[in-house]
Design a protein that fits this description.
Blueprint lengths: L13 H20 L1 H23 L5 H19 L1
Length: about 80
């Protein structure tokens, strides 16, 4: 019925395991050495997700929010253009 054609890049298992260990070190080490900085970074990330969900993803926004976002975009565009 369906023919699955496997044609991909085949590498040794050492490379993905090494990559995973290095990425884990890059994530864990800063959290250990300066947790307050990582906390600030996580807070900025959370605020960005909330702004995205409210301003972009939410399709049935109230009128005041639609006005606010359109005026904000208009003001941003005029500030960038000048």
């Amino acid at each position: 019925m369906f023919h699955v054609h496997v044609c991909g890049l085949q590498v040794s298992l050492v490379f993905p395991v090494t990559f995973f260990i290095v990425c884990g070190f890059l994530v864990v080490f800063p959290a250990y050495t300066s947790p307050e900085l990582v906390g600030v970074d996580v807070a900025i990330l959370v605020v960005g997700v909330i702004v995205y969900l409210v301003c972009i993803q939410w399709k049935s926004k109230p009128k005041f929010l639609l006005r606010f976002t359109s005026e904000s975009v208009r003001g941003f565009k005029s500030g960038v253009a000048s």
